[in-house]
Design brief:
- α13 runs antiparallel to α14.
- The chain contains 14 helices and eight strands.
- The chain is elongated, with a radius of gyration of 24 Å.
Length: 284
C-alpha cells in the first residue's frame, strides 16, 4: 500500500483524500496554502498531518497535486522529487508534460481526473462511486491508479497521451453547459412573465427525467419533443416566437435542433420525408 499525500486542500483534494482514507488507504500528509483548510482536512483523517510541501514529499510514495491547472507545472519544477516516487495531477485539461520536471528527477508521473463536479464536496463524495475517472500513466503507476479507482467504485477511462483538451472540452457539454441550456430556458420563460426561480424549479425535474431516460435507453432512444415526432408545425411556431424575442434565441434553438435531427435519424422513428421537412425548416 502506498503512503499518500495531497498538495492542495480545496474541494477536490478534500473529497479524494477523505474517500481514499475511508477505504483504508494511508493518507499521511496534506499541504496547502490555506492552512485552515489543510488543518480541517487532516483532522478528519486518522494519521494525517499538515506538512509543508517538501515534508509531504518526504513522507509519501504517491503525491496527488489537487491544485489549480496553472499551479501544476510550477510545483513540478519547484519540489524535490526523488526516484521511486510517483506524482499525479488531478486536472482534466492539463497534459502530463506539465509534470516533466518531476519526471526528470526520477518520479513517475500520471493523471487521475474524477469526472464529477465538486462544487458541493459532501454531495460529490456520495457521487464518486459509479463516476468515471480519467487515468493516464505508465505501468506500474497505471495499475496503482486503477486499483485506487476500483477501491472508490469508479469506472476508469484510460486516456491516450495528448487527448486531454478534447476529453475535457467534451465533458463540459455534460456538465456546466447544461447550465447554459437551463439559463436559456429560464430567460425565455422570464420574457413571458414567469419568475426565474419558479421557472428553474419547474424545469429541473424535466432535465432529470431526460437524463434518466438517456441512462436507460441511450441518447437516440430518449429523444422526445417535436423533433422526435417530426412535428414541423410546432417547430415553426417555436422559431417564430424565439426569433421575435431576439435573434440569438432563434439561432440557439436552430443549432440545437439540427443536432437533434442526427439523433432523430438514428432513432429510426421518422421517415426521410419528415426529416427533410425539418432540415429545410431549420436551415443549414
Amino acid at each position: 500500500m502506498s503512503r499518500l499525500a495531497f498538495i492542495g486542500a480545496g474541494r477536490l483534494g478534500q473529497v479524494l483524500a477523505r474517500a481514499m482514507a475511508a477505504q483504508g488507504e494511508a493518507v499521511v500528509a496534506v499541504s496547502s496554502r490555506n492552512q485552515d483548510a489543510a488543518e480541517a482536512l487532516a483532522l478528519r483523517i486518522p494519521g494525517c498531518q499538515v506538512m509543508t510541501q517538501e515534508q509531504a514529499l518526504q513522507a509519501a510514495d504517491l503525491v496527488f497535486l489537487t491544485v489549480s491547472d496553472d499551479a501544476i507545472e510550477p510545483l513540478a519544477r519547484a519540489l524535490p522529487w526523488r526516484s521511486g516516487q510517483a506524482v499525479v495531477h488531478c486536472s482534466g485539461a492539463t497534459e502530463l508534460t506539465a509534470l516533466a520536471a518531476a519526471g526528470l528527477r526520477g518520479a513517475t508521473v500520471g493523471g487521475f481526473h474524477p469526472l464529477q463536479i465538486f462544487s458541493d464536496p459532501e454531495n460529490a463524495a456520495q457521487l464518486l462511486a459509479g463516476s468515471a475517472v480519467a487515468i493516464e500513466a505508465e505501468p506500474p503507476l497505471r495499475e496503482e491508479l486503477l486499483r485506487l479507482a476500483a477501491l472508490l467504485g469508479m469506472q476508469p477511462l484510460q486516456l491516450p497521451p495528448g487527448t486531454r483538451a478534447a476529453y475535457h472540452a467534451a465533458a463540459s457539454f455534460s456538465a456546466s453547459f447544461i447550465l447554459s441550456l437551463l439559463d436559456e430556458a429560464v430567460q425565455i420563460w422570464a420574457g413571458v412573465g414567469l419568475p426565474q426561480q419558479q421557472a428553474l424549479q419547474a424545469l429541473l425535474p424535466l432535465a432529470r427525467g431526460t437524463l434518466q431516460a438517456a441512462e436507460k435507453r441511450g441518447l437516440a432512444g430518449a429523444l422526445s419533443g417535436p423533433i422526435s415526432r417530426g412535428d414541423a408545425g410546432v417547430v415553426a411556431g417555436h422559431l417564430q416566437t424565439l426569433d421575435s424575442l431576439g435573434a440569438e434565441h432563434g439561432a440557439f434553438y436552430r443549432e440545437l435542433s439540427r443536432r437533434q435531427l442526427q439523433l432523430a435519424r438514428a432513432s429510426g422513428r421518422l421517415d426521410e420525408q419528415a426529416l427533410q421537412r425539418l432540415e429545410a425548416l431549420l436551415g443549414h
